[in-house]
Amino acid sequence: MDVLEALRAESGAVAVVGAGGKKTTLYTLAERAARERSLRAVVTATVRIPIFDRRVEAVAVTDDPVTALERADAWPVGVVPEQKGEDRYGGYDPEVVDDIAAAGVADLVLVKADGARTREFKAPNDREPQLPRHVDTVVPIASVQAVGKPLSADHVHRPERVAAITGLDRGDAIGPEDVARVLASDRGGRKGVPDGATVVPLLNKVDDPELRDTAEEIGWELLERAPAVSRVVLARMVADDPVVDILES
Question: How many C-alpha atoms does 151 have within 13 Å on its Cβ side?
Fold first, then answer.
């Protein structure tokens, strides 16, 4: 099973949240959708996103993304509303992303819907995630390499939110069950997911057999804790063949 099928990211609006590989996941899905399936794939965001021009065929900085996409002649395309400084773009209101998806100008709309400041693990705050109302698939991401690390701002974005879900104290080692709890929680990986959307958690950076064992432990625990989730994907998103395994309930 290829990564598009594994993550249920073959069409519609797909939002990535969490930490530990969101941008890599977006770009991998966009590139493969366009190159391998000739899909009109779009990369966008509802939050700030680093400059990503080299990962797409073109970027349109515009208040009218639908018109810009109607004129596109090479895919994938990035659309954003504004540039913020030298290194970041801003994000659209979620309603604008809904309009992009509804307009039929793209086959696949890929959305960065929260931030993590390059950490390996996170839980959202009150304003996150910024999900489109009509998103089809939500992919909560965590890096398996967070396991064994102390719960601190060095490794975790919003560690106080992770502590509130898991019961960990600052400085405690993060265990596989803690990652599973956060991804399974409606205060964590499933926060704000609209009715009818599919949730496919992604455990990223599964770089060796030991990390695969860790990822499997997280994944089975997650499936037990979240009956609404039927699939967890284990992956190394920087690899040519990213999917390491798929766990299903």
Answer: 24
Amino acid identity of residue 190, one-letter, is R
Q: What are phi and psi of 11, to 5 degrees?
A: -165, 170
For residues 36-62, average pLDDT: 98
- How far apart CA 167 and CA 134 sit, in angstroms, is 33
In the chain, what are the domains?
Answer: 3-248 (3.40.50)
Q: Encode pLDDT of 51-66 as tens digits.
A: 999 999 999 999 999 9
Q: Check: CB of residue 165 under 8 Å from CB of residue 123.
A: yes
Cα–Cα distance for residue pair 231/129, rounded to 1 Å? 21
What phi and psi, each to the nearest 5 degrees, are found at residue 78? -100, 135
Rounded Cα–Cα distance for residues 100 and 88 (Å): 21
- First vs last C-alpha separation in the chain: 17
Q: What is the number of other CB atoms lying within 10 angstroms of the CB of residue 235?
A: 27
Taking CA atoms, 11 is separated from 7, 34, 94, 104, in Å, by: 11, 12, 18, 11
